[in-house]
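Q: What does the assembly look like in three dimensions?
Context provided by user:
Components: two
Sequences:
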Amino acid sequence: MMQKVMINAPLNRVEGDLEIRTEVDGGRVSDAWCSGTMYRGFEKILAGRGPLDGLVITPRICGICTTSHLTAAVKALDMIAGVFPPPNAVRIRNLTLMAEHIQSDMRHAFLMFAADLVNPAYRDVPLFDEAVRRYQPFKGETVIETIKETKKVLEIIAIVGGEWPHSSYMVPGGIVSNPASGDLMECLLLLKQYRSWYEKRILGCSLERWLDVRSSSDIDVWLEENNLHRESDLGFYIRFAREIGLDRIGRGHGNFISYGSLDIPEGTKVKGKGKHLVASGFAQGIKVTDFSHEKILEHVSHSWFMDYNGGRHPFNGETIPYASGRESGKYSWAKSPRYDALPAETGPLAEMITAENPLFTDLVSRTGPSAFTRELARISRPAYLMPAMEAWILESVSDGKFYTSPEEIIEGKGYGVTQASRGALGHWVQIENGAITHYQIITPTAWNASPRDSNGTRGPLEEALIGTEIKDPSNPVELGHVVRSFDCCLVCTVHTVNRGKEIGRVKVGAAIL
Amino acid sequence: MSINTRTLYWLQSGGCGGDTMSLLGLESPDIMEILKLLNVEFLWHPSLSNGSPSKHRSLIEAILSGKQPLDILCVEGAVIRGPGGTGMYETIEGKPKKDLIAGLAKQAKVVLAVGTCASFGGIVSAGEVEGTGLQFYKDKKGGFLGETFKSRSGLPVINLPGCPCASEAVSGVLTAFISDVSLPLNEYNSPLQWYGLLVHQGCTRNEYHEYRVEDNDFGKKGCLFFHMGCRGPLTYAPCNKMLKNRRSSKTRVGVPCIGCAQPVFPASEPFFQTPNIADIPLELPAGVDRAHYMAYKGMAAAAAPERLKNRETMI
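A: Here is the predicted structure of the complete assembly.
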């Protein structure tokens, strides 16, 4: 008879914010529960405040997605004010959001995800010593380089936005700053420096060469092509991950969501998909359909909030905390967002799938998603973003127009959706008599790390854990790989919602550090 | 670990992790170099350590029982006490996180509140989760640990506010502690070195302020104090001396200071507008007399040179 044991894993890479409980049957995970363990109440904080206050309050939901929250907040206000930022303001907003992404992707991959590759569980793997040399926490060569380089690229945000994290430099109608051409040239240098490091250290080849990898078999060709590819951090990751079987764990539902992000400014030479550089869409497997925010509903049946029936659209959402312990069947401070009643994962892989990227479409069509593929998408994403960043810096040195003054915001309803570094992020806002009356936020971690919904369907991360083989219950490193492949920004699960409440973060992996 | 190694535990509670992000931005030397130079070992950092849950559990037990000495406790984020004082809005393995904070604080030689949330409660204190700072609730002494709390070295909690806090303040305090150098503190137990000057000092818009050349919309070069809600002349923090990410600051690029290092942050008034009477802000720069200020600003505006009035001067 199979023995069932429970493994409780507070996967701390973010202190205590996400705890995973799993039931293990015959050495494999047979069920899983993912709990956000912190509620901060952002929604109530926002309700009643001034119309622009989301620009200050919401970046502080998450110290690593701070520019993403600012982007969502300002887009909601642009909509309410009925104002269109000048094209150069769109370029600079995009530039800073992308700078945040390309630092987050490297920090997550090499400070947080890779820390599990040097877990003692792998001490007999032939590549282990090399992994330690690269990824040992606080000391590994790649760890140290990643810290040095990522802080430099963030200077781009400080030059045009004053600081990172937590600037409020985007305002309805554009941005507050007027980056002069000298400022933009400094941004360009910082970007070139980061790109040069990324190509040399991370890829071991040019961006163009990696972007030419379009299928699973192309990966093998690329790996064999030369030693620089094999020994780069990307090449090493692919070899190590295959060795320990990351491509065989973490499958999940196979549904993907991207809200779309990085608006294409008027007059640019950068080509996007529709209105965005990062495509919007919803996919089941690799079948992509159009995204509409109206199909999003949030459930609270298993979340520590007062119950309502079924799901609610964020314009009608409510968040009334109800700390009932586990007796009621509730077990998380995260709500359960669903799209067309389905759970969906979000993040770099979801962006690749909804954009019908050939490499990731091929990988997912063969085996479904996996921990390996999710992290591969994250490590690859800067290669897709940096050419557009460079183009937008250069194009911004033109007319010096970065702001269109809007009418004072007295009332209205609007939403701002974008892609944060770890996936789909939206703010839904209502303003009446010059004050916020409703503010609801759905974070990427709410999508990925949600608990069960009112139909009893598991959240994406919970589902992805099912079937995972656990070799040593006292050191369940396999759970860590799967959870961290979602890059749960813990703090991110903040559910901020209507009248101020909010939420939880997950403790794993994340980025939030 | 050698006998001279100092141990550090970094705890994240009701916050956003932004102070850790700020710490990773330190330069010359950077955080990894600083740890080596000061011979400080992270027993735990939630984002950067990779110990298993069981290893972390035994570390906590060892610290709480006194078997594992703890030199430095850094707390990032507010203490969440709700609902109704139970602490169940933030738990770790089912137990209130606040209890862990209290236990660790008792063992530590020195306790640093990193950021405004840990110092005074910050954003989280504005909500319903009963958030507070470690030894202050907003500008009132007491907070979570109480007015009389002293860490094992006899010091109160050292507050390093800012949202995020200037990472140079963290490295500076660590260096002073390791070197046995004492730092003079202000009334909020923050070192004067970093909290004895105003955000206004060093702002590149200072000349516009001086001559009262003011703006009432975003995207301009003038002073942001009179209409745009800038709290730079009221907020003690080194933002315009130790530039953010070594590059700039909010006020330099045109974001009015929101007073994020103030004990009362976030103020209840809307951001980005200045409550005023007769065009003079209700709250004047720290320590300034109203009648004299009105007379001075009237004359200063009259004396303003054309290059400022025409916004010709770069900022």
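Follow-up: Residues 290-303 of chain B form the longest helix (14 residues).
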